[in-house]
Amino acid sequence: MGNLQVVYEVPKIYTGPNHYCPGCFHGIIHRVIAEILQEEGWDDISIGIAPVGCAVLAYDYIDIDWFEAPHGRACANATGIKWAWPDRLVFTYQGDGDAASIGFAETSYAAVRGVNITTIMVNNAVYGMTGGQMAPTTLVGMKTTTSPYGRDPKYAGYPVKMAEHIAQFEGTALSVRVSAFDPQHVLDMKKWIKKAFQYQMEGKGYTFIEVVSTCPTNWRMDPVKAAEFVKNEMIKVYPLGVYKDVGEEKKEG
Amino acid sequence: MGEKVFMKGNEALGEAAVRSGCRLFFGYPITPASELAEYMAYRLPQVGGVFIQAESEVAASNMIYGAGAAGKYAMTASSSPGVSLMQEAISYMAGAEVPAVIINLIRGGPGLGDIQPAQSDYFQAVKGGGHGDYRNLVYAPSTLQEAVDLMPMLFQNAFKYRMLAMMVVDGLVGQMMEAVEFKYDIDPDSIPVPDWALSGKKMHGGKKNVNTSLELDPNKLAEHNFKLFEKYQKVYENERMFEAFELEEPDIDVMIVAYGTAARIIKTAVKNLRAKGYKVGLFRPITLWPFPDKELKEYAEKTEHILTVEMSMGQLIEDVKLSIFDPNKKYHLMPYPGGIVPTPKEVEDKVIEILKGGAK
Fold this sequence. Notes:
The structure holds two protein chains of two kinds.
Chain A: H1 26-39, E1 46-50, E2 65-68, H2 74-84, E3 89-95, H3 96-102, H4 104-113, E4 118-123, E5 126-127, E6 133-134, H5 153-156, H6 162-167, E7 172-179, H7 183-201, E8 206-212, H8 216-219, H9 223-237, E9 241-245, H10 246-252
Parallel strand pairs in A: 1-2, 1-3, 3-4, 4-8, 7-8
Antiparallel strand pairs in A: 5-6, 7-9
Helix pairs in contact in A: 1-7, 2-4, 3-4
Chain B: E1 4-8, H1 9-19, E2 24-27, H2 34-43, E3 50-53, H3 57-69, E4 74-78, H4 80-85, H5 87-96, E5 100-106, H6 122-128, E6 137-139, H7 144-161, E7 164-170, H8 171-175, E8 177-181, E9 210-211, H9 218-239, E10 242-245, E11 254-257, H10 260-275, E12 280-285, E13 287-289, H11 293-300, E14 305-310, H12 316-324, E15 330-335, H13 344-355
Parallel strand pairs in B: 2-3, 2-4, 4-5, 5-7, 6-7, 11-12, 11-14, 14-15
Antiparallel strand pairs in B: 1-8, 6-13, 10-12
Helix pairs in contact in B: 1-2, 1-7, 3-5, 10-13, 11-12
């Protein structure tokens, strides 16, 4: 047994089990955040802001200080917390309805002001917790409980592309869209969330990570099909990639 | 310390907050409260503080919500339509027991209304403009000096009881220039960070703090509601404030009840009526919640006639009647809506009319 060694373990600060549906990416994203905070020793100085949405109980799953925000207001609350403690690591964890609909102004203005906080926005194209209603990110033609004939642009317009939107502001240091539908993309997501936190600790400005995710329950799909839907359909509308990275810009300059 | 300066009301309120130890202000412009934000934008950087202009009152109130949960003195100021937008955060702060200070320079409503001094947000401030069962500490000074004197108490009581402290003054207090004296200057570094603050685990022994207003178990939420109301009961017992002006005699012809600017004007009416031989006095609540109900009832024993003068359409009078709770008394109302301020002469005429038996 002497040549056996631990190559992987769940981070100690990840305090599951969680309430998420099978095939949902929230659990993976939580674990990745927990890994980063523990590996970098940031868990002692971190304050997370949980949203209203499926991740409303995120504060039960990572062993750091947490604030539970009103629907959409996470970035405003985070702004207050960050200015109270400018040297802490402050991040919001939000869904697409939270960050891109009811909280569109608060999220945008965190970028406008270049507040040194990080937003992780999980985009699964529906309101999950309330039972699968149309979200700002619902694909055109996609059926939800409030778009039973499919999202019709005549009434509902078109999907909101947050990573692109946030990238336009000078206060934004990093805006990236990632996913987690296979192990390679999970590792990639970890790299970018870590970079976002690093930029925040260096005081570079607002950092934004959009994670294209699933909702097997409300999409009426099994976990494998939901992951395939992300890979084959979602990222056609939401292309993965780096939309802004001031670090890279500086290197090029 | 202690120097008397000539200042605009809004600026003096800002300076009072700075001297109370507040270093975080989040605001959004609105008449007649804008000069308070302007003053903080000028003053806070001089003392190592931070002024942030929010994108809306919704955001500004959620920023003080965050800063309060982080354990720091934080403030916003607005006027009626803006404070309506803050009701979301106010309700959440009550549920999550987050302390902060909001100044409402009330203007005439409803809707956009006008920008003149009013008291028509009494119900919103006192009875709860947001959802759920909760209370706010509500202070209603009647002069700028009193507002300045009360300011440290707003922050201290907000943190002592972990609840929102609101100051309601009308636009007149904010816009008028007066001589004012600052009797304190509190060093923010002397204010301890509470052990419940969100400040990173290392600040509080490695055990995480969670600040939330969410409780999905109805039994636990009920328990929380009862706990909040035990706290409010303590606040009621400890924090009621009022002024009794010319109410010493055992018998009074008419007792006037008024607060804020209305009360300040009525003092002149009381003096003029006294000079004519009328035994008239003023009961002035300083805290609107907790309302000084026991004290008001005691003074009401001295008189048959209670005249409520308010810059609203009959909001204060509801608490006056509830406090006295005596159908044999005669209750009179002088409502001044729309941003109209009472004159001493009108109040004097009304008192004389009541005593002639002509008033209903």
